[in-house]
Amino acid sequence: MSEKFIYSDTNKRYRTQNSYLRQRFGGKVIKAALNGGFTCPNIDGTKGTGGCTYCSALGSGDFGGTPGKPLKEQFEEIKSVLGKKWSSAMYIPYFQANTNTYAPTERLRTLFEEALGFEGVVGLAVSTRPDCISDETADYLEELAERTYLTVELGLQTVHDETARRINRCHTYADFLEGYEKLRKRNVNVGVHIINGLPGETPEMMLETAEKLSRLDIHSIKIHLLHIIKGTVLAEQYERGEFEAMDFEDYINIVCSQIELLPPEVIIERITGDGDRNTLIAPRWSLDKKRVMNGIDKEFVRRDSVQGAKYNAEFGIRNAELF
Asked: Please, what is the Cα angle at 87 between 72 and 294, to 5 degrees?
């Protein structure tokens, strides 16, 4: 098998976000994580309380902007730091913390249009739950997608409803498919978040999540490792011995096998996560991000494999059987 992956302009054997954005926009593009002050229906009682068992107090936005600060100030703080390294970089404002479509459409319009007006911005990314996209909001997202590079990232985490119940996700895989369809029929790019190492999940279950996603017309995927964070319900469960944290070798093998199942053109935005060493209980090995990324590269070389090597192309754009 050729060492050169068709969609890579580096030695990576999968399609990275950096590579895709560089090819699309002709230079360095940075996703600037902003906090729009949103909450979540799994926190305020609409769907549940307490949030997902793994969620930190910042709603998975630990590196996602400073709550309460004006968007412009948050954005300029990021530019002042990263602009020193990439003076000519372009930016994609990324609404990350909590559920960023969980508000009236007019509020979304106010925030998103403000962010699109910042200097050097070439697109927009919005992270949300698949059950928090009204028809009105979907219509606005369609309008945005017609005039800028937009990706709406849906938090799925797993296709297994029993796991979703265990982590207090408060939505089902069917809910995800409904939100996905609502966006794709409006030609909105869909990104998907999944988590490896969730309590009770076997390697086969994690691979099934990737295989089912390979049947969909997704634009990108973020593959996360389950982080056990101080102060969470998950941390209490871990300390009681209810499940074990994933080990390094297993994670490397699972990620490579998942990427082999995905279509070659899908953008792999993330292959691990960033943990705060002050609050991360386990797995502590994940703090060495370079080791994780190098481990995945080495495993692809060892397998003589690339993204999509085990993708079943017979499914094509495979929505028809799922709805």
From this structure: 100
